[in-house]
Design a protein that fits this description.
about 45% helix, single chain
């Protein structure tokens, strides 16, 4: 039995606990989700460097997963274009069963390795791409078989799992294992295992985007002002970079078509 499927001895009688006690137990395990990432940092760092190297050659980052794992990959990918101004194709997510599974369960989809291969083939993966498979248990055929196909295509394969010795751990070129252990509710890996994986995906995409030059100091310079909040944020970023007021920032942004990057790359920042 995998570690994430075992019963948690701390919560054996959680059904008799008070609300306060239940929340305290969940919060204790939330902390464990964070600490489980620490030992995986070297593997995460290696993955970031390799992904960046390939992306600089024109490669893409493709997440693939099933259930909660697949949803996490799709969410992380969807947040890259508005945050960093990159193409939706640069970071993308594939979920077993298609995008309907983002809002409704279809757990049997993870058992079809052939479907995983077929869905990934639709992306036309090549030697510059990275395919990052996400599976808490680490044995979902949909994910594992897709990674084997990716490797045949010359892609870098990265596995993100919570169980050492699983297929993803054994078969990925870079294996990231966050050993979160037994859940508060037995087998409910959307909890701390899912939380750990969400944080790891945040780390990977953020680090890669920084390494790709999409951040100036610690500010988003490819941010797209697609609503009122983001327009205000763009103005605020320019005010911070140039130490100017909002009127001057707006004037310069109008000059550079509201592109912070174009403004940063101009001579205005050195005036």
């Amino acid at each position: 039995m995998s570690e994430t499927e075992k019963r948690n001895p701390k919560t054996m009688h959680i059904d008799k606990a008070s609300t306060k006690e239940i929340l305290a137990l969940i919060q204790e395990e939330n902390y464990n989700a964070v600490t489980a990432i620490e030992p995986a940092l070297p593997a995460i760092g290696h993955a970031c460097d390799m992904i960046t190297e390939r992306m600089k050659r024109g490669g893409r980052l493709i997440y693939i997963g099933a259930g909660t794992s697949g949803r996490l990959g799709v969410i992380d990918a969807a947040e890259c274009p508005p945050t960093y101004g990159v193409s939706p194709e640069l970071v993308s997510g594939i979920i077993a069963g298609g995008y309907d599974r983002m809002v409704s369960a279809g757990e049997s989809a993870e058992d079809s390795g052939d479907r995983g291969v077929s869905d990934l083939r639709g992306k036309n993966p090549n030697e510059n791409d990275t395919v990052l498979g996400i599976s808490v248990a680490g044995n979902a055929a949909y994910v594992a078989d897709a990674l084997l196909y990716a490797r045949k295509c010359g892609c870098l394969t990265v596995g993100l799992t919570s169980n050492r010795g699983s297929r993803l751990d054994a078969e990925s070129e870079i294996s990231i294992v966050t050993e979160t252990g037994a859940e508060v509710v037995t087998g409910s890996t959307r909890m701390k295992a899912g939380s750990a994986h969400k944080m790891v995906l945040n780390m990977i995409s953020t680090c890669v985007m920084i390494r790709m030059g999409n951040v100036y100091e610690n500010m988003m310079i490819n941010l797209r002002p697609t609503n009122i909040k983001l327009k205000r944020r763009v103005i605020s970023i320019v005010c911070e970079i140039l130490s100017c007021d909002e009127a001057r920032a707006t004037e310069l942004l109008d000059k550079y078509d509201w592109s912070i990057r174009r403004l940063v790359d101009s001579e205005e920042v050195t005036e």
